[in-house]
Amino acid sequence: MSKRPIVILIADDDAEDRMLIQEALEENRLKNQIQFVENGEELMDYLHNRNRFNDKQQFPTPGLILLDLNMPKKDGREALKEIKTDDTLRLIPIVVLTTSKAEEDVLRTYDLGVSSFITKPVTFSSLVDVMKTLSKYWFEIVELPKF
Question: Domain locations in the chain?
């Protein structure tokens, strides 16, 4: 039985971080489709297929969101709250991947319903290791809801 490929949506305003995350996933030979948004407003537009994300075929509902907290326009905390209070979106697993190490951010995001909180590693090799573990967990071990 072949599993349906799960789309990974990465919400991060830093172009270099987006590139490094994508390279780390590719380094782990992850074949999943990866989509990117650069701020919380784009994230919500993507999830609701609005504006430039209106094509559901091109921008399908993600099976996993990697969310940076510190983004312009609408930060990750606001977007997380909006997603987790929306009946059609709240089941999407969200992994916070951020530079923040603040205990307040950890507590607040778990309180809002985040699935995991990961501080971005400093080195690329550490990022590759984190993405390997993340990929194994989310795509080989757990059962995800179908959207």
Answer: 8-140
- Tell me the β-bridge partners of 25: none
| DSSP label of 53 | G
What is 8-140's CATH number? 3.40.50.2300
Query: Exposed/middle/buried for 61, CB within 10 Å: 0-12, 13-18, 19+?
Result: middle
43-73 per-position pLDDT tens digit: 999 999 999 999 988 999 999 999 999 888 8
d(CA 32, CA 34): 6
12 with 21: CB under 8 angstroms?
Answer: yes
Is this model's pTM higher than 0.90 or not? Answer: no
Whole-angstrom CA distances from 53 to 29, 40, 97, 98 are: 27, 14, 23, 24
